[in-house]
Every structure is written in structure tokens, then in C-alpha cells.
Fold this protein.
Amino acid sequence: MTETWRPTAAMRRYLDAIMSADVPPDDTSRCTASRNTLRTLRHWRRQPSFPPWLEREIERRLADDVSVVWLVVDRLARRGDLSACKLYLARFDTHGDRLDPITPQEFYKLALLAETQGTSVPPPPEKTHET
């Protein structure tokens, strides 16, 4: 009977370090952040199951992150954020000059309005300091 390979807690910590924006993208920093050694990492890399698992998990997490970004873009566009509307249309509108039945019509209206009036996204309001 073959045992099913499972990543250890230390391997999952290493994955977390890879995905962290706060950890420099090198083995030494990632090992330090995940409380592992370079020797352990070399050992893992020789195991047949570790590299494919690590690659799959990185891809899965990146896909999750991208989904969250597009969810935020969608929410901002629905609130009338012009930049988000344009970004949404640039990414998802694959129908050219035909209306995409899935894209909310208000996105098209806002983007068209911006194009015809030369409207750009207004800068954020300046912060005032209370004295």
C-alpha cells in the first residue's frame, strides 16, 4: 500500500514565505522567514512530490489573488469608478464594438462618457491638516 504524500507544516510555512510580499525573493530569506534551513529546502527539492506540489500551490494562490483583484475592480466599477470601468472593459470586453451581454451596461455608459468628454479620473482630494 502506497502512502499519500502530504506537505509538512514547515513546507506550508515555506510556501507562505514565497507568497509574502514582505519576504525578499531568495531562498535564504524565504527559509529564514519560514524557520527552515537551506539544507532542508535542498532535501525537499530532491523529493519527487515537493516541487510539483509547490508549483501547484503557488499557481492556485496566484489565481486566488487575481480573482480578489478583479472582484474589487468589479465593485469599484459598479460604484461608478471610471478607472475601474475602463480596466474592467479592457480586461473582459472581448466583443469589440458589440455589447458583451455579461458586462454591466453602466460600465459601457461610463467609459463612453469618459471618451466623448475627454474625462479623466479626478485626482484624490488633498488632505487637510487640522490644527
